[in-house]
Specification:
By secondary structure, the chain is α+β, with helices and mostly antiparallel strands. It contains 2 helices and 7 strands, in the order E-H-E-E-H-E-E-E-E. The longest helix is centred in the middle third of the chain and has 10 residues. The two termini are 21 Å apart.
Length: 120
């Protein structure tokens, strides 16, 4: 059995490949980039810029058990040019043993979010 890799710069496709469903109406998708290997383990790298409601973001943080991070973090070298969280952004991470560097940003003034998620 063979499988194809996935590669897109469309924010709607990025969201769907990443989440497994079409974005709800309370999320405005702005930019996206997604790559997934053809390997059965579903290795992927995803960048997403979107504007959710505050309620959606707060629930997302809670459901995924995320914590705010204050340590230094460097944007990956392969990040798209548009992936530029603002100085007003709070940075979150998942409290997981196998964290590979995924980070989640929420701008407290504009409600714009950025997600960098990696699973290799």
């Amino acid at each position: 059995m063979t499988s194809c890799s996935k590669n897109t710069n469309d924010p709607n496709e990025t969201f769907k490949y990443w989440s497994g469903f079409v974005a709800p109406k309370n999320i405005k998708l702005l930019k996206g980039q997604y790559w997934q290997s053809s390997h059965f383990s579903k290795e992927y790298i995803m960048y997403l810029k979107f504007k959710p409601t505050k309620k959606f973001w707060n629930e997302y943080i809670e459901i995924n058990g995320m914590s705010e991070e204050k340590n230094e973090w460097t944007i990956p070298a392969d990040a798209p040019q548009w992936f530029k969280p603002s100085e007003n952004s709070k940075r979150y991470y998942r409290n997981e043993e196998f964290d590979q560097g995924s980070r989640y940003f929420y701008d407290t003034k504009t409600n714009i979010c950025y997600i960098y998620e990696i699973q290799l």
